[in-house]
């Protein structure tokens, strides 16, 4: 059992392979956070707490004589409200008497084997590698009857501790929650830097790193989606932490809607991190007996640098978040028609692209936006999911049969959560969109957001898409979502419950995704929101991969995939070779380099391959053959970021190593070839020191130690963005 509970002392220690986490319910019932870091054996860490008589930090009632005891200075597991802790808090509420107070005290615990579940929410599961134990800590406010159950899932082997909170009204009057965070992590000591992942549409998740300081720093999305601009994943790192050394810990929300992660360095220099759904425009009324479940946060810690922390998340997301049967399967190399045709196509054009792709070895054809209703541009047709046979010139089944005849599987784009104002669906149900009475709602990409908080909307969409998947032989679905929320108002909710609308939308979406992915487990789902606008662990619970960005410029993609890789596995990143000059940037990058970059994720093509020269087509054949060999490394291997791709100027490099250490693939892209150049020299990582490896660059045989310490020097790379891939194979001594 990885959880040690001592009811006498009130100490709880959670142990993973390399870390420990300790909390303590003291005699007052206040639950302190004592420690999260490298394993410390069975140590009782109560003596490490710093308690001082800090002026203007009040004592809880009854503790007047103990001036060193203040909720304002203690490190805590979850805060109450309004009773003496002035730092960022976990809860804001209004009780039946109108008071904003909650004084949470220990009311019991439970330890049990296995992983708790969060009904209605995506959450980590134990799975077949099922090492997980659960700790439940119950907190209670004696006056209002509010109860908070803190949930801890200890994944010992994975070095991950999950947390969530269930807030229950155990009193007799209604309680309105205005903030309901998932978890608080108080770190008693140390100066920490915050790394977060910032961006925009077509340039998502670039890491930004800076010191934490006394002011509150907030990473948030208020868009009703986790967003292109921010990601619900942050890292706290010691100032000197690098890829290969130093302390760092991550917090990843399993939530796809508006969120908030706040950090604050307190007056006593402890660091507090509070994570959860966004409390902006949020409220939730709990009638007596009702509960609200705050989504899960995945915490992981490493003192071996950011690379190791990322690998812990990669493995955890792959093993304990992604449920799809596709997780470990060969993912088909696909061709998507979007960048080649946008919505200007008919079956003949589509089949022309498909035919060429099949001939070169592509395994699946994906028909993107524009196949349904009156959808001839991005102003119309969403919600009218009837196949536009007049436009295609055939039925969907005929098109699918033709694609199958080419030896390829067939995939389809959908955008279920939206409606265009010109559709019969909107005319029939104007109250099914997010819009407030008397106000014309704002549009985004000319579309409106369906109110998925309404069960009848979820049912309607379920039947439409269930039918689509049941009636046609569709092997893959690209599930898109192309605008953010405005006018967040649900016609199904009374005025006093409007603060629940955005959150109920997400719960409705999760229900819909759970039903559809459950009914069609063999369908490979790829998430998308204008590329990576909803790239989060919540979505990955349903979709094993997500289209990483609408920017397919390979040089930009290096940065986007690099930033994404801090928290999310490369196996989750959809990544395609597109045409040049690139549609988004106008830049021309060699085909070989585009392929090298796309091979760092789930590989495919998104261009009309007929336009390539005979030589390029031959190259595509080779790329497909090579990727088939490399994909197992990307799905299940170890990623090392050999350079800092966000800052690299001359070249960038990364390495995938097979889980069994038998082979590795190193990719190098020169960004700015030099005259009279310095050598490009790279040192590999993660190879077995004493084992022998042959590298495809020099043909030489080296020990792993030699490759990792002495490294390899590349030949001079000239021209625009040349790339080199070096294969490293384990070999026996001669
Ligand atoms: C979004 C997606 C694109 C494409 C278009 C279709 O922008 O990210 O890949 O599917 O929608 O409208």
From TrEMBL:
UniProt GO molecular function: alpha-galactosidase activity
Catalytically driven reaction(s): Hydrolysis of terminal, non-reducing alpha-D-galactose residues in alpha-D-galactosides, including galactose oligosaccharides, galactomannans and galactolipids
Active site: 480 (nucleophile), 550 (proton donor)
InterPro entries found in the cross-reference section: Aldolase_TIM, Alpga-gal_N_sf, Alpha-glycosidase_related, GH, Glyco_hydro_27/36_CS, Glyco_hydro_36, Glyco_hydro_36_C, Glyco_hydro_36_N
Residues spanning the membrane: none
Source domain of life: Bacteria
EC number in record: 3.2.1.22
Entries under PROSITE patterns matching the protein: ALPHA_GALACTOSIDASE (PS00512)
Similarity field: Belongs to the glycosyl hydrolase.
Major enzyme class: hydrolase
Glycosyl hydrolase family 36 C-terminal domain residues: 652-727
Keywords in alphabetical order: Glycosidase, Hydrolase
Key word Hydrolase present: yes
GO BP annotation list: carbohydrate catabolic process
Location of the Glycosyl hydrolase family 36 N-terminal domain: 30-287
Protein's recorded name: Alpha-galactosidase
